[in-house]
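Hey L., structure's done. Input below.
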Amino acid sequence: MINATGPIYLDHAATTPVRPEVIEAMAPYWSQQAGNPSSIYQWARDARRAVDEARERIAAILGARPPEIVFTSGGTESDNAAIKGVAFARRARGNHIITTQIEHHAVLHACEWLEQFAFETTYLPVDRYGLVDPQTVAEVITDKTILISVMYANNEVGTIEPIAEISRIARERRIPFHTDAVQAGGTLDLNVNRLGVDLLALSAHKFHGPKGVGVLYVRSGTRWQPQQQGGAQERNRRAGTENTPGIVGMATALELAYRDLPANNAHVQALRDRLIGGVLERIPECELTGHPTRRLPNNASFAFRYVEGESILLGLDVRGIYASSGSACTSGALEPSHVLAALGLAPELVRGSLRLTTGLDNTIEQIDRVVDELPPAIAALRAMSPAFAPATASVAAAATDARPSPAVSSPTVAARSA
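Output:
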């Protein structure tokens, strides 16, 4: 019997609940060992030891050296520090940056900000599934290119990019390569040597760690200029008192995630597939967005015709189901998803986006409840949509007026079925 009580959280791509083991690991550094890691008394030495050990533990998972790990406040700071840091350190060699049209705003806005300092950025297109072509990366490189930044996995549609292939191109041209791996943390391989990256960004709250703490990996020998000035913390690479509890919690969360990786991925992927199958079967005028198979194991993202994403979220909220949309309401005006627009989706589909991301605590019963609740929620919204009524009327009229005719192939139907 389907469990019809309690909220259902399906927004794990936005943030994840902190695991009990992580909270336990952090607890001493809030009180009993609350010293500043930069001081010299016993509490401070305890905190410094905890930070250094966390650095070693995280480096081991990344296949990196501990000095290559820089602790930050999260993914946004890590992305900004990577892009701006390399740009200013290498500006004597050139001013050209390559990225994609579907990056997180932490990357896109950092590149846009650099334009005021005479940097130029090429924003690469992607295909209908959100994949960037490595050959396209190679074709736009110039003798002024100083950085390539391509995300590991997309935060909206879950598409996993060919990072290792792109990194080989970057290495051949001696160009530093940065990847925003925030969505990949806890589910995909993070070994920086297998990936071939020079800079990599992570955020703890995406893999059941605390909010407000992250990692920037900087490969030894990479020319990079720190972007935050003040004290000498993080070997003069990131000024500011270290967030000791957060750093310890992040290391614990990352270790737990990779210790249990196969089982965790199998669980969330089984729920994801059940969700995708149920939604596509029961709701017409709906498309799965992103790559059908090359996607994060917990990501199910859709686009619905004749409805707005924010309205879907509100309709689910009253049913106790928490999710995200690819659209954002800013200053009272609907701002369509730049990711879905880059995939070439029609405007009416871009506006009707929904992202459901499964997690460790989700159950089959919860997924089945969502599959039961979502169709009537969409139907109710479509019934109120001025765009839906004319569309259904025209379909009915076409069916009434239909006359026998020779069979013809339909490119539209064929494309939709592909």
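DSSP finds 16 helices and 14 strands in the chain. The two ends are 35 Å apart (CA to CA).

-- N.
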